[in-house]
Amino acid sequence: MKVPMLDLNAQYEPLMADIRAALDKVFEEHHYIMGSQVKALEERVQEYLGIKHAIGCASGTDALVLAIKALGIGDGDEVITTPFTFFATASSIWRNHAKPIFVDIDPKTFNLDPQKIEAAITPRTKAIMPVHLFGQCSDMQAIMEIAKKHNLKVIEDNAQGIGSTWNGQMSCSFGDIGTLSFFPSKNLGAMGDAGMCLTNSDDLAAKLRQLRVHGENPKYYHKWVGLNSRLDTMQAAILLVKLEALAAWSDARRANAAFYDEALAGIADLQTPYIHPQALTIYNQYTLITSRRDALMKHLQDSGIGCAIYYPMPLHLQECFAQLGYKAGDLPIAEKLAGQVLSIPIYPELSHDMKQYVADCIREFFA
Ligand SMILES: *Cc1c(COP(=O)(O)O)cnc(C)c1O
User: Fold this and answer.
1) Kind of pairing, strands 53-57 and 99-102?
2) 161 Cβ inside 6 Å of ligand 1
């Protein structure tokens, strides 16, 4: 049996007729930049997440760059974030000439540890940027309390967590701005790149809408230097079709996780994902922890099972950030987990037999 890490063919098959019809409509209208589908998608996402403003843009990375710009964060400012995330979280700070300050993570949830944030705050700190990693919302109650106390902005990098909640409240609705990615492997993926900013602030929404079109308002008059970062009309048309399936997909991922949780319980050197009681996760990834990670990975690959390491190198140790001055040992939890994590297939279309096969192969390895 073969079990891929993700099966886009299975995901798209039931939707292709609707997607083709939606694209045909775009081809009839020829309104490829900021067509009506972009606004329709923004309105649908606002409704889905219960947040006042959605501003589409070209990628999840650009959503972060735009969010930092909109909050006026730049030269010499510091932004506290996690080292255990996709590169774009920190590069978006760097690209705005601000400085990423990495704080270690909670070893159980993989998310920024709120108890370690205050020690990293300096007079230059402007914002905290938590990531809702693998689909699990960070402890936003604790993070917002710290932000309020120190008068800091909060940007939620929610590229992996659309529809996740903390204490029943939707991710992206806690901070000043939340961001989404529609990269094809995210829970709601486009057929290309796309992203979005979410905010309840009228002022920030207006500024984000200007920043995504070169900072212009009115046309050809520029108050700021913005980006060319619009959400493509074709991608919006596709995402509008797919958004209708998202809630069911998230349920299916949680059901798959429940299956693995039970099937993989009780193995000494294997930890299944810990989900905080206050969190509702959407399982963008199902990530195991074991000291025998590399050998397990090889065993699964040899058995025809896709798996992946998210992430093998924490961001504070990346070559491009050498001038920040971090060294091995500075953030021990992130560094240790980078050597022990392995994500296995969790996508909604997994069959019972596939899940059973994955679980059997893992049990066989540890037996
Ligand atoms: C995917 C991802 C991004 C970037 O999104 P793109 O759409 O690929 O630019 C940013 N942050 C995190 C945590 C991600 O997983």
Assistant:
1) unpaired
2) no
For 149-178, write each residue's pLDDT tens digit.
999 999 999 999 999 999 999 999 999 999
**Encoded tokens for 57:** 């843009």
Distance 192 CA to ligand 1 centre (A): 13
Give the CATH class of 246-366: alpha beta
What is the 8-class DSSP label of residue 185? T
Residue 274 DSSP symbol:
P
Q: What percent of the chain has pLDDT over 90?
A: 100
| CA-proximal residue: ligand 1, atom 5 (nearest) | 60
Å from CA of 89 to ligand 1 middle? 7
User: For the domain bounded by 8-243, which CATH number is listed?
Assistant: 3.40.640.10
The per-residue pLDDT for 242 is 98
- Residue-range domain boundaries for the chain: 8-243, 246-366
- Ligand 1 center from residue 336 Cα (angstroms): 23
Could you tell me the CA-to-CA distances from 175 to 36, 65, 157, 303 in Å, in that order?
28, 16, 10, 43
Structure tokens at 216: 């212009």
Task: Convert the pLDDT of each residue in 17-31 to its tens digit.
Answer: 999 999 999 999 999
Q: How far is the CA of 58 from the centre of ligand 1 (A)?
A: 11
Token pair of 55, please? 């501003």
> DSSP per residue over 241-268, as a string?
HHHHHHHHHHHHHHHHHHHHHHHTTT-T
Atom 6 of ligand 1, nearest CA residue:
60
Distance CA 133, CA 339 (A): 17
Given CA atoms 328, 333, 334, 338 in this order, what sign does their dihedral have? Answer: positive
Residue pointed to by tokens 């893992």: 362
Q: What is the pLDDT of residues 30-68, one digit of tens each?
A: 999 999 999 999 999 999 999 999 999 999 999 999 999
What are the C-alpha distances in Å from 274 to residues 31, 49, 277? 46, 24, 9
**What is residue 104's predicted lDDT score, i.e. its pLDDT?**
98
